Amino acid sequence: MDVGGLVTQQQYLGLDGGGSTLRALTITDTGLTLASEQSGPANLLAVGEKRAREALGHVMTYDHYDGIVAGMAGADRPWVQKFWEAALQPFADRVLVVGDYRIAWAAFTDGAPGMITIFGTGSIFYGEHYGRKARIGGYGWKIGDIGSGIALGRAAIRATLAAWEGWGPKTALGQAVSAWSGAFTPETLLNYIYAPTMDWRSVSDLASSVFTEAEAGDEAASAILGQQEQDILRQWDTLITAIHLSQTDSVGLMGGLATQWKERLNGKWQQHHGSSLITVTREPVDGAAHWAKRLGQTLGR
């Protein structure tokens, strides 16, 4: 940046905005961290415009940036994208607003061809390859996503109901479901689930028990993971075909269930594709900040 004939360091901002926090990372053109900030929820769909603007105000360390990349929840919706573009454009000439899953992809690939899968309460599969882009999932908690905490928790409840009603195999998952719900019969479990105050997203708390019981040989838990594994592998193959990725390109995994799924699927993926699944530890906000640097430097030439 040239100010009055003096050369000052350039600064690039990455933002990661979700349902619980808004994270901000400012770096220089050499990648040095200048500032790291965090504020409250910034999911426009959940908290509204006023609270979203307040969250943004708490993390803007500087008055001007040479590039901003913001990965925001809900930004695939045009009106959400436009809101954040309008909020950020006073701070930089070069602003890019994308869905939050794309900065997770950037954290894994640094903009190179590849694909990322985020396994958390929900899940999303995403890849890019020289202009080709493809996304699968990210349907939200009302529908659920393959391999997600909600999908596994919902399946655990169904298996428990089947066991309690006598038409499904006995399963240790019932103990986890009872601990989660306080219910020990189909009637009381259904009453708990359909109570007006019940947050369906909390079923993801049961996901770890599905992995644990499957490891112990539980028939129902093993069947749940077996079906989910087939669907996950199909979605990865679909992404590879859609964006013309090499069969040997690696897949990055993020989210609270990434480690468990890697342990279950890495051998099968290596057998069929000759590459490994990689658990990504780099934060998405870091991917956004370095993407902002590439954006600013490219347009600044």
Overview of the structural elements:
- The chain is of the alpha/beta class and 301 residues long.
- It has two domains: 2-110 and 282-299, ATPase, nucleotide binding domain (Nucleotidyltransferase, domain 5, 2-Layer Sandwich); 149-245, no CATH class.
- Helices cover 46% and strands 20% of the residues.
- It has ten helices and twelve strands.
- It has helices at 44-59, 78-88, 100-109, 149-165, 173-181, 186-193, 207-215, 219-243, 258-273, 284-299; strands spanning 2-3, 6-7, 12-17, 22-27, 33-39, 67-72, 95-99, 114-119, 123-129, 132-137, 251-254, 277-279.
- It has a five-stranded mixed beta sheet with strand order 5-4-3-6-7.
- β11, α9 and β12 (277-279) form a beta-alpha-beta unit.
- α4 packs antiparallel against α8 (219-243) and α7 (207-215) crosses α8 (219-243).
- The chain is globular, with a radius of gyration of 22 Å.
Provide the fold topology.
Blueprint: E1 2-3, E2 6-7, E3 12-17, E4 22-27, E5 33-39, H1 44-59, E6 67-72, H2 78-88, E7 95-99, H3 100-109, E8 114-119, E9 123-129, E10 132-137, H4 149-165, H5 173-181, H6 186-193, H7 207-215, H8 219-243, E11 251-254, H9 258-273, E12 277-279, H10 284-299
Helix pairs in contact: 3-10, 4-8, 7-8
CATH H level of the largest domain: which superfamily?
A: ATPase, nucleotide binding domain
The DSSP helix count reads 10
Remind me, CATH topology of the largest domain? Nucleotidyltransferase, domain 5
What is the string of helix and strand elements? EEEEEHEHEHEEEHHHHHEHEH
Q: Report on the biggest sheet.
A: 5 strands, mixed
Strand line-up across the major sheet: 5-4-3-6-7
Query: Helical percent range?
Result: 40-55%
- So what's the overall shape? globular
Decide which structural class fits the backbone: alpha/beta
N- to C-terminal separation?
12 Å
User: What is the rounded Rg?
Assistant: 22 Å
